[in-house]
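User: I'm writing a tutorial on reading structure tokens. Could you give me a worked example: one chain, its sequence, then its tokens, then a sentence or two explaining what the tokens reveal?
Assistant: Sure. Here is the example chain.
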Amino acid sequence: MVMTACHPKFSAAQRIAAFALLDRFVPRSDGPPPEVGG
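And here are its predicted structure tokens:
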């Protein structure tokens, strides 16, 4: 996933890009993952 944002809106004056990679998948039926603490 790539998320981008610019400031001011619709400008290239200031831009940030964040990248993410799916590490694992936990089915909802398994309950919350341990990292959530639920």
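What the tokens reveal: Residues 2 and 19 are 5 Å apart (CA to CA). The two ends are 26 Å apart (CA to CA).
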